[in-house]
Amino acid sequence: MNNHRRLPWAAALVMALGIAALGVTMNGCKEKGGDTRNIVDVVSLNGNGPLMSDVYNLGSKKEDSSDDFVPVDVVEVTFQSRPHDAALTIQPGEPFGSVRFHSYDLVWVDKNHTDGVDLDGNGTVDLKNVRGGAMNVVVPIGQTGQGSIVVVSGGEKVVPPISCLGPVGGNCSGNSAVEYKVQAEITFHGVEETSGDAITLTRGLLVDIGDYADD
Fold this sequence. Notes:
By secondary structure, this protein is mostly beta strands. The protein has helices at 2-22, 154-157; strands spanning 38-45, 51-54, 73-83, 99-108, 116-117, 127-128, 130-139, 144-152, 179-192, 198-210. The protein has a single domain (31-210), classed as Immunoglobulin-like (Sandwich), CATH 2.60.40.1940.
């Protein structure tokens, strides 16, 4: 009679030992191998084209400077998320695997400088790297999420050498450039909200800086 009472307990022990031997994760936060539950891609950054960074805009009144302005380069970014395992069934509205992107780093590619890019080659960094730029984009699994980031600010366009490309001017002695081409690497930092796992994505962006014709 005592032997019969021990059988359910013994069976449970055997099952637990078997699961432990197989190394199965029971908390459901990660796939086997430590991967996050979903895969997130940057499907669009500035429409997947180069950024034409205009240094000065004449506004709608071409002969009147009252509506002239210096544009700030704000570009869109669209993320798309999909389940890591195609066999998973995801129901709309469930929190399973949603990702929140909270910050970004923008690094200008310059082999001679680590803190930014020297546009005119005079040894001084003209566009500084951005570390920890704030953003807040939620990407539900199986869906997209969109946000925006600043690439070149208005303040950076009103000082040489960028200002020398347009009517703002300044101390532009010896500066004959009409355009600057530079490459940026943008890294987005996020977290999978259910598991707490970090997600990091990096995309490149070609930036052409000049005084372009206004419509």
